[in-house]
Amino acid sequence: MTTPLETLIQAGTKVWLDSIDPQLVDSNYKLGVSGATSNPVIVSDLIKSGKFDSWIEELTSQGKESGEIAWSITNRLVQNAQDVFLPVWEKTEGNDGYVSFELDPLLEDPERNMPHEERVAKYIELGKHWGIGHKNRMIKVPATPAGIDALEELCAAGITLNVTLCFTMRQYHAAREAVWRGAQRRESLDGFKSVYSIFVSRVDVYTEKHIPDLSDEAQGQLGIVNAKNIWKDNDDFWKSKGLKLQQELIFASTGTKLPSDPPWKYVAAFAGDGIETNPPKTNELVQESGKAFEKEIDKMPSQAVLDELEAKVDYADLEKVLMEEGIAKFADPQKNLLQLIESKKAAV
User: Fold this and answer.
1) Please, which residues bridge with residue 161 across strands?
2) Residues with Cβ < 8 Å from 22, sequence gap 6 or more?
3) Tens digits of per-residue pLDDT, 285-302?
4) For 49-68, what is each residue's pLDDT tens digit?
5) Chain-centre distance of CA 209, in angstroms?
6) Residue 345's CB: how many other CB atoms inside 10 A?
7) Which candidate, 132, 169, 126, 130, places its Cα nearest to that of 146?
8) CA of 9: how far to CAs of 4, 6, 93, 255, 297, in Å?
9) Residue 40 — pLDDT band, cuts 50, 70, 90?
10) What are the C-alpha distances in Å from 108 to residues 142, 253, 324?
11) CATH number of the domain to which 157 belongs
12) φ, ψ for residue 29, nearest 5 deg
């Protein structure tokens, strides 16, 4: 019998796991999941579990500091997931089977207030350090001003990029243009692959809080409409380029935040194309749903809903608010992770 996740994949969606927990990577790979993503929150939660205390002991005995330990463990976990998904990468000749490695979120920490040019240079340095020499590793760079300014150089150097923390068409265009400029500086475009992570559920949390006067029909729809508009723009741009590999959207933040929403709300909405990075719990609930997913990526709400969203949404404010929240959501866990490792080091 075909499972719900299998129907989603058959509809044309690539499903990636929003975790690099070795056990979840193995179990989800067996379900048909074909890639994975990581971020500081995921790594922090894994280290909190105590499963990797022996790694901390080993690295501490080598005289490594907390920051070095955090990135060594991240590198090992990402590499482990890469090994699992490598057969997918080989079978698809580089079109799928990737694992994302996110660069240091503290580069955007407001408390550090690092100068822009220094930040750009650090993204390029770290992106090359963690990206070069890895067949199926994507380097995750945020769609901040400094992140976007690092994309061209990283892409030109042959790094496969996942541009993350993307909320608006403006950010997507700036990122895509920078990546494409970098790609055209390569000797060959055969291995060129890029993805753009458009965050979904956080957009609907934003409208609940900041645009409460949306009608019942429109409330909870902007995350889907916004991402589908960007998906169409992405599709239109790349289809004329004649590239060997797909340049795709990742529909990120697909776990529902509102209790009234079914857990597969976003999973169903984007079925049919692109990549969904689903939290482990979302994949679990999708499997239990018994649903058969069909292509919905090209379907929109009514024109009345689209007109209302167009009239009431201030995308500049949405981007400002969600970027500030997004940076804090990654920077704060990284700080906590370093403190956690420091306390575990002291106990060694």
Assistant:
1) 139, 194
2) 77, 80, 81
3) 999 999 999 999 999 999
4) 999 999 999 999 999 999 99
5) 24
6) 16
7) 126
8) 9, 5, 18, 18, 13
9) confident
10) 9, 20, 10
11) 3.20.20.70
12) -60, -40
Record the tokens describing residue 47, joined without a space: 């280290």
Structure tokens at 158: 């042959």
Between CA 253 and CA 18 the distance in angstroms is: 9
Bridge partner list, 142? 164
310: left (phi > 0), else alpha (psi -120 to 50), else beta?
alpha
CA distance linking residue 63 with residue 6, whole number of Å: 47
Q: What angle do CA 192, 194, 200 make, to 5 degrees?
A: 170
Domain that holds residue 112: 4-347
Task: End-to-end CA distance of the chain: give it in Å, rounded.
Answer: 50
The two three-digit tokens of residue 162, written as one number: 């996942």
pLDDT value, residue 348: 67
Structurally, how many domains does the chain consist of?
A: 1
What is the tens place of the pLDDT at every residue in 158-185? Answer: 999 999 999 999 999 999 999 999 999 9
Question: Torsion-angle region of residue 133: left (phi > 0), alpha (psi -120 to 50) or beta?
Answer: left
pLDDT band of 30, cuts 50, 70, 90 = very high
Number of separate helices (H) and strands (E) present in the chain: 14, 8
* Residues in contact with 332: Cβ distance below 8 Å, sequence separation at least 6, in sequence order: none
Minimal CA–CA distance to 41: which of 27, 57, 20?
Answer: 20
- pLDDT tens, position by position, 75-111: 999 999 999 999 999 999 999 999 999 999 999 999 9
